[in-house]
Write a structure and sequence with these properties.
Number of strands: 0
Structural class: mainly alpha
Length: about 290
């Protein structure tokens, strides 16, 4: 449970850092790309074995990490567009409810069993994510943008399910830092390619504020994945339980951090979501 707790803390810290981006006028896209470079270097630093490029390229998981890296950037941009066109709360709900995808994959692909109380816990977790994330103001948007939150939901779920697939079939625990570093390197290269294409139309200016923001984001981002991989090794909790607890706890803890650090006002529904989150975590973890 320690690894799962640390993954939740790191992921929630990412939320705090994103909020600070607004305060210090940091450009999110450039900071995100810097963050992936820092996360990659962090993974390489914590990898205890000698790093051989040929060994990485020929690893069973190498091409999968490249695809994951592209997905990281793609889903990030879709999340940004969803926030702009549909609403921040909708983007948040779509992202966090995506834990359903790896849960379903775990049951179908790895024959993981779910007791009745765990199923109840997962359903309560979905309700908790919705009520803890949704805002009171009415959301109105054009039907043409309806596909955006669906793509965010599916994309985020595919990322989580893919990470678990590699952990189940391709990785040993020694390779976790190298695997994570390679995923982040692929994401960084994809982002850099995107920026360089944009630079052909508009000259690129290096802003050190964006770099510092990326550095601050990169370390907890790396460890959020690293500790999630370790948590999935847990013998008492299956992957369905881990993903449910991880996502719901992040929503719950992030909401609390928003209240404490940023004086955010939350509604009765949000408090209800936090209460449901606690109940769902207890049901999934204990039964």
């Amino acid at each position: 449970m320690l690894d799962l707790t640390l993954s939740v803390l790191c992921s929630s810290l990412i939320f705090v850092i994103f909020k600070l981006f607004d305060v210090y006028k940091i450009q999110t896209l450039y900071a995100i790309i810097t963050n992936y470079i820092v996360a990659c270097l962090t993974g390489l630093f914590f990898y205890e074995e000698p790093i051989k490029v040929n060994q990485v390229i020929t690893a069973d998981w190498f091409w999968g990490t490249l695809a994951l890296g592209v997905l990281f950037i793609l889903i990030f941009n879709l999340m940004a567009k969803t926030s702009q066109k549909v609403g921040v709360s909708v983007a948040s709900v779509a992202t966090k409810m995506s834990f359903v995808v790896p849960v379903v994959v775990g049951v179908l692909l790895y024959k993981e069993s779910l007791s009745f109380l765990k199923i109840v816990g997962i359903l309560l977790a979905l309700a908790a994510v919705y009520f803890a994330s949704i805002k009171e103001n009415k959301i109105s948007f054009s039907k043409e943008y309806l596909l955006l939150p669906i793509l965010v939901f599916l994309g985020s779920g595919v990322i989580d399910a893919s990470i678990n697939y590699f952990r189940e079939t391709k990785l040993n625990s020694i390779e976790f830092p190298l695997f994570s570093a390679t995923v982040f390197a692929a994401a960084a290269l994809t982002g850099l390619s995107f920026i360089l294409i944009k630079a052909t139309k508009k000259p690129l200016k290096i802003n050190f504020r964006n770099v510092i923001g990326g550095i601050a984001l990169g370390v907890p981002n790396y460890f959020s994945i690293f500790f999630l991989l370790r948590a999935l090794q847990n013998n008492t909790l299956n992957s369905a339980s881990v993903f449910t607890i991880n996502n719901v706890a992040i929503v719950m803890f992030s909401t609390v951090l928003g209240i404490v650090l940023f004086k955010e006002k939350i509604s009765f529904k949000n408090w209800g979501g936090i209460a449901l989150a606690i109940v769902s975590i207890l049901l999934v973890a204990l039964f």
